[in-house]
Structure of Glycosyltransferase family 9 protein:
Amino acid sequence: MSARENKKKIIIFQTRRIGDLFQTLPLINNILKKHNNECNILVVVDDDFVNLQSNFKSNIELIGKKEFYKHYYLNIANNNKLKLNPNEIELFKLNFKNYYWNNSNNIAIDSSINYDFIYFDEAINLTFDITNSLILNIIDSKVKFGFIGCGKSEKKNEIICRGKAANYFYNTIKYREQNRINIVDVFSLIGAGRYFLNSKYNFKFKKIKDKIRIFFVVASSNSKRDWPVEEFTKLAESIIKNFDCEIILLGTQKEIETASEIKNGLNHLNHSVIDLTGRTTLNKLIDLLKTGDILISPDTGLLQIACNIGLDSVSIFLGNANVYETGPYLKNAYVISPILSCYPCREPEKCENNFKCKDNIKADDVFKVLELKLLGKKYTKKTLLNNLKQTLQEKRFNVYKCDTSVSVAYYNIFKQNITKQELIAEIFKYAWINLFAFDEQNKIKKENVIKIINKKYLFNSKIFNDKNNIIIENLNSELKYLIEIFKNACSINNIKEKSRKKYELLNFKNNIVNLKINYPDYSLIFDYFTDEINYKLINNSINFKDIFNEIIYLVEFSSGILDNLKIKLK
C-alpha cells in the first residue's frame, strides 16, 4: 500500500479474539461502501489470524500485530524519525519490551523498511490496548477514530483517551444493563459513523448430503459461558431420534475431552456424530461451516463467523455473555438466555449463585427452539410457538430473534410488558446511534424507533396501558429535569476567564456524582459526559459547548420518543 496510490488507505487495529475480528467485518463493509470500494484497508490482527487472508477481499490485507509493530514503529522509535519526546519513547519501550527488546534494552532493527507504508487517510483503533493506542497517537493519518494514547500515567485508563463512540464502548463495560447497542454496531459507529447494514449473502451452500447437518460448538473461551456437557448430550440424542441428520462437534484442542464426553454419552446413537474438535485449521473450519444447516453454540468466535457466512444459528448465552452486546448479527438467528437478576455477570465479581444460569436452560428447551428452525415448513409456526410458550411461562429463560433492519436488535418471540429500566435502555440506544452517526442520512427517525418499541413490547395492550402510561410519565419527568440541569450548565461555557471556567466545570462534574446516586439508570450518560470533559481538558481545550449539546440532544431525543408513545397510548 504505497502512499502514492490514488485509492484511500485505511488502517484498522483489531488485535483481539477471532470473534472480534469477524464482528469488525460489518465496519469494513461500511467503509468500502462509503468509499465506493475505492480504498485499501490494512487490518492489524492477532498473529494467529493472518492465515485467514484468503477469506477477505483483495483490497483488504491482514498483518500480524508483531510484524506490524516491528515494521512500523520499532525502527522509527529507535531513530526517532517522528521526533517523539522522551515520555512518549519511554511509554513505547514499556509496552514493546515483550515483543522486541533484547537484554541490552535496544530495539531489534530491520533496516529494510519502506516508510511510505506508514501513511494512511484514516486510522481506526477498536481495542482498549496501550500499544495500539500509542501507535494511533503518532501515526501519520488525516483522521483518527477510536482509542488513542495521549498521556503518561500509572493508570491505563489515563493513558488511553477515547472519544465519542469509543468512549461509549468503554463505559458500557461498567453499565451493561444500560446498553442495547451490539458490538457490531459500536465498531461501525467508531470507524464509519454508521450502524450495521444488513448484508446479502450471495454464495451457495456446498451441500454434500441430504441429511441435515448440525454443528455443535461444544465450549467457549470462557467457562462461565459454557453450557453443561450433559445438556449437549441430551440435545444431541433428541435431535438424532427426531431428524435424519448428522451432528458435527467443533472446538479447539482444549475441548477434545468435552467432545468425547458428549459423543460417548450417546452410546449406540453416536454413529450420527462426527467429532472434529481440534482436528481442523480455522480456514478449513470456515469452509466446513458453509456446508451446514444450523449452528448450536455458546457465545463464541465461530458463532460470529457463522453470521458472516450466513449460517443460521441457535445460540445459548450464559454467564458474562450478554445477548445485547455480542449476540449474533444474522437476521432471524435465535438466542436463548436465562432470566435471572444476576445475568449477565457483573465483571469482575465472582458468581455467588453457583452459576445457576446454566441450570435455567435445558436440552428440551433448546430442542423446542430448534424445531422452529427445522420444522417450520412441516408444521405451522403457531403450533410450534404454542409448544414453546408453555415452557416460557416458567420464566426460566428468554428466546430472542435477531433483526437487522435498523441496526442489530433482538425481539423476544413473545411480546413482553416493559419495565422502566428496559424502556430507558431501548430509547437511548437509538439516541446514542444518532449522536455517533457521521451524517444525517445514517440517523434513525423517531417514528422508526416508536415502531420498533411497539413491535417488541406490549404497548398497545389495554391491560398494560395504565401501567405503561405511569412508566412513561415518570420517566419523561426525569428526562425533562435532566434537560433543565444541562441547559443551565451550558452557561459555564460563556465564562471568559479560563481558570474560573475550569473551576465551575470541575464543580459541575462533582455535582454529577450526586446525580448518579439519585438517578442511577442514567449512569452511562453521566460517565460518558465526564469522560468527554476530561478528554477536552487533557487537550487543553476550553470550549465545552459541543459536549453539553450532545447530552442535551440525547435526553431531548429520548423525551420526544416518550411524548409520541404517550400519544399513541391514548
Confidence is low (pLDDT under 50) at residues 99-116, 201-206. The radius of gyration is 25 Å. The longest strand covers residues 140-149. The domain at 8-162 is CATH 3.40.50 (Rossmann fold).
